[in-house]
Structures are given as structure tokens and as C-alpha cells.
């Protein structure tokens, strides 16, 4: 049997349509739209392309979008002053500082300077704490884990009582998604195990999983025989394993591979995300959703 494909590209379109229609409703009722500022320091090509995509998506949804590009040599003090300006700007609901930052700037200091009520990336310690408490406390779940949970729910996978195994314990994926899956509520109520490089018998843990979430950054780490027949497999890994010339554009593009042996895994799993086109497209989508939510909190509409 071949697994059902959970396509981030399709789920993204559904969610963006939902956000666009909410934007129109709120604009009609309150005369305002969500405002998102992306602060880009320097000209790192990957950062420029991420920010461009975020701004393009915000524009498509009818948000107020501001791209604030600053030179590589901006001082930490000036960057903090810029964040303070947007913290106090009534038309801005979400502030995103594109990482990585130049070495002379303290990343932690910068992220902690963002008003937690505008921290749509969900990385501020206040929002990490809110996520840990769960329930109504959660304001901005971090975007990649939020995208993973949304995919699981929209794919109709039962999470209540499910054995969830998360491979990886990073602050941006592994730890938050593990925490989200064990909370009380829809798309959660799971029994969660987190595994990492010091785990004994990685394969044995994976074999137990009804839902296997892999975020290790190691191409093909999870072997087909580690997958429980019928399990839901969410492959977060995005690994560049080579280059090829695109048939569509003629440009040289990266060959991407996930952390799971996809071709064989899909013969065993019940549902699975592809790489690319799985979790990847969900991250920016959830950033837009968080920005929309931020405006709704302000208007008392949540
Ligand atoms: P990370 O910070 O490097 O963390 C990787 C985690 O995986 C660590 O906890 C590490 O364990 C664990 N790990 C690595 N090799 C392992 C192995 N052989 N066995 C067991 N555990 C292992 O990475 P990340 O930021 O979480 O990202 C993980 C992957 O997801 C990357 O490929 C990244 O590109 C991708 N990603 C995709 C998106 C998206 O699609 N939107 C977003 C974020 C990340 P230790 O803690 O013991 O070192």
C-alpha cells in the first residue's frame, strides 16, 4: 500500500485563503489590516530570498508589509532602537528579525527586545513559556512546529492517545513540537518521546511511533524498517545533497532530501510528507497566521 501524501503546498493554499478572507472581514469591520515588518540585516542571499517570500506572501494576503533592510555594519544599539520603533508602531502587529545576524550583534538580546505581543516567530522567552503552559496561554506557537501540528490535524490523523516520537531536540523544532503534542486539546493529547544523538536504540523508539516527526538534519537517517506500518511520518529535514539544472527555469537549483528514506517509507507508512513540498511551505504560512492572530488579539476578536 502506498501512503497518503500530506502536501504542504496544498494545505498552505487552503490556509492562505482562510487568512485572506479574514483580512477582508476585519478590514470591513475595523478598517485595519495586519501589519508585518521584516528586518533584514546585510545581503545574505538565503536571508534575502526568505524575506522576499515572506513579504510577497504578506502582500498577497492584503497585509501592510514593510521590508526594513539595514546595512551589515548596523550597530546593535541602532538595531535595538529600530525594534523599539516598531514595538511602538500601532500599525505593526508582527516583527520578524531575519536570522542569522552579523557576529557583532547579540542575537539573544535582539530577539528578547521584540515586544512579546508582536513576536510572531514565537521565539521570545515569554512566548516559549506560554507554549509550555499551553491552553489559552499560547499566543504565538513557533511557525514550523505549528505548521507540523496543522498538517497532522488537516490530514485527519488521530493524535489523542497516539505514540508520538520526535527525532531531534532543537529549540525551533524538536522541543516545541514535542511540547505541543503532549498538551491537552485538539491535535494533541499524545504520549510523546523525544530522541536525540545520545538516545540508545533510536530504531526501537521510532518503531513504536504512530506519529513519527523527524527533525535531525541527517539525510535518510530514518530507515524504512523503523516505521510502524500505517504510521504518520512527518519529515522536517531539508538537506542539500547536490545540485541540478531546473527543467522549468534552466537555473541551477539544490537537490533536497529529507531525513527519511521517502521512496521506501511511503510503501509502509499510512501517511507521509514529501521533501520538498511537505513541512517547508507551512512555516511562512503559520507566520502569516500568527500576524493575523496578533491583530485579532489587539482588537479583542479572538
Ligand atoms: P538542529 O538544531 O541541528 O537539531 C537537530 C537535532 O537532531 C538535535 O537535537 C540532534 O541531537 C538531533 N540529531 C542529529 N543527528 C541525529 C542522529 N543521528 N540521531 C538522533 N538524533 C540526531 O536542527 P533543526 O534546526 O531542528 O532542524 C532539523 C532539520 O529540519 C534540518 O534539516 C532543517 O533544515 C530542517 N528544518 C526545516 C524547516 C522547514 O521546513 N520549514 C524549519 C526548520 C528546520 P543532539 O541535540 O543530541 O545534537
Q: What amount of the residues lies in strands? A: 15-25%
Integer average pLDDT: 97
Cα(first) to Cα(last) distance is 42 Å
Helix-strand topology string: EHEHEHEHHHEHEHEEEEHEH
The strand count comes to 11
Helix segment tally? 10
* Oligomeric state of this protein: single chain
Describe the structure in your own words.
- The protein has 302 residues and is α/β, with parallel strands linked by helices.
- Helices cover 39% and strands 18% of the residues.
- It has helices at residues 8-30, 45-60, 76-87, 107-113, 125-133, 143-154, 174-182, 202-208, 262-265, 280-299, and strands spanning 4-5, 35-41, 64-70, 94-97, 163-167, 191-195, 211-214, 232-235, 239-245, 252-257, 271-272.
- The chain has a 6-stranded parallel sheet, with helices on both faces. It has a 3-stranded parallel sheet with strand order 3-2-4, with helices on both faces. The protein has a two-stranded antiparallel sheet with strand order 9-10.
- The termini are far apart.
- NADP nicotinamide-adenine-dinucleotide phosphate binds at residues 144, 167-170, 172-174, 195-198, 202, 215-218, 221, 236-239, 279-280, 283.
Amino acid at each position: 500500500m502506498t501512503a497518503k501524501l500530506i502536501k504542504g503546498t496544498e494545505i498552505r493554499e487552503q490556509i492562505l485563503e482562510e487568512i485572506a478572507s479574514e483580512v477582508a472581514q476585519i478590514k470591513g469591520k475595523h478598517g485595519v489590516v495586519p501589519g508585518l515588518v521584516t528586518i533584514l540585516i546585510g545581503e545574505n542571499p538565503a536571508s534575502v530570498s526568505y524575506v522576499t517570500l515572506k513579504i510577497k506572501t504578506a502582500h498577497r494576503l492584503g497585509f501592510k508589509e514593510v521590508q526594513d533592510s539595514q546595512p551589515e555594519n548596523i550597530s546593535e544599539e541602532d538595531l535595538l532602537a529600530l525594534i523599539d520603533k516598531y514595538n511602538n508602531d500601532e500599525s505593526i502587529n508582527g516583527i520578524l528579525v531575519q536570522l542569522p545576524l552579523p557576529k557583532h550583534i547579540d542575537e539573544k538580546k535582539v530577539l528578547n527586545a521584540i515586544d512579546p505581543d508582536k513576536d510572531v516567530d514565537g521565539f521570545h522567552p515569554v512566548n516559549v513559556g506560554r507554549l509550555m503552559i499551553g491552553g489559552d496561554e499560547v499566543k504565538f506557537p513557533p511557525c514550523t512546529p505549528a505548521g507540523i501540528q496543522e498538517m497532522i490535524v488537516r490530514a485527519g490523523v488521530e493524535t489523542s492517545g497516539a505514540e508520538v516520537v520526535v527525532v531531534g531536540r532543537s529549540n525551533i523544532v524538536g522541543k516545541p513540537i514535542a511540547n505541543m503534542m503532549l498538551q491537552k486539546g485538539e491535535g494533541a493529547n499524545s504520549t510523546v518521546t523525544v530522541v536525540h544523538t545520545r538516545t540508545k536504540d533510536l530504531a526501537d523508539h521510532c518503531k513504536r511511533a504512530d506519529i513519527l516527526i523527524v527533525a535531525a538534519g541527517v539525510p535518510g537517517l530514518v530507515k524504512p524498517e523503523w516505521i510502524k506500518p500505517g504510521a504518520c511520518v512527518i519529515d522536517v529535514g531539508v538537506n542539500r545533497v547536490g545540485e541540478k539544472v531546473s527543467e522549468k527555469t534552466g537555473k541551477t537549483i539544490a537537490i533536497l532530501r529529507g531525513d527519511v528514506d521517502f521512496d521506501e517509507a511511503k510503501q509502509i507508512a499510512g501517511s507521509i510528507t514529501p521533501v520538498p513540498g511537505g513541512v517547508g511551505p507551512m512555516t511562512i504560512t503559520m507566520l502569516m497566521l500568527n500576524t493575523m492572530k496578533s491583530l485579532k488579539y489587539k482588537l479583542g476578536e479572538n
